[in-house]
């Protein structure tokens, strides 16, 4: 994988994490205004699909889902998975 490809993957990762961050903010806004909410399942799946940084930042910035034990446990777990996946891929790329 070239530096060119890695740069594009990073940009996609960054965009996705901005989206997951905004999802937390939008859901918080919807909660305050009695609108139809984004499901917890969707928020958590988004975090596990390489969006844990954005989800975690959204939780902190918007003070959203911070009291829910499910989110206190699963968003950090998603972050660990988000770190492990590229680490394993990188390991196997180096040790071909």
| Secondary structure: number of strands | 0
**Estimated radius of gyration:** 15 Å
Distance between the termini: 13 Å
Q: Largest beta sheet, briefly?
A: none
Structural class: mainly alpha
User: If helices are DSSP runs of H or I spanning 4 or more residues, what is the number of helices?
Assistant: 3
Element string (H = helix, E = strand): HHH
Residue-averaged pLDDT: 96
Q: What is the molecular shape?
A: elongated
| Helix proportion range | over 70%
| Poorly predicted runs of 5 or more residues | none
Q: Roughly what fraction of the amino acids lie in strands?
A: under 5%
Structure, described:
This protein has helices spanning 3-32, 40-62, 69-94. With 96 residues, the chain is an all-alpha fold. Helix 1 packs across helix 2 (40-62) and helix 2 crosses helix 3. It is elongated and about 50 Å long.
Characteristic terms for this protein:
about 100 residues, single chain, mainly alpha
Question: How are the elements arranged and paired?
Answer:
Blueprint: H1 3-32, H2 40-62, H3 69-94
Helix pairs in contact: 1-2, 2-3
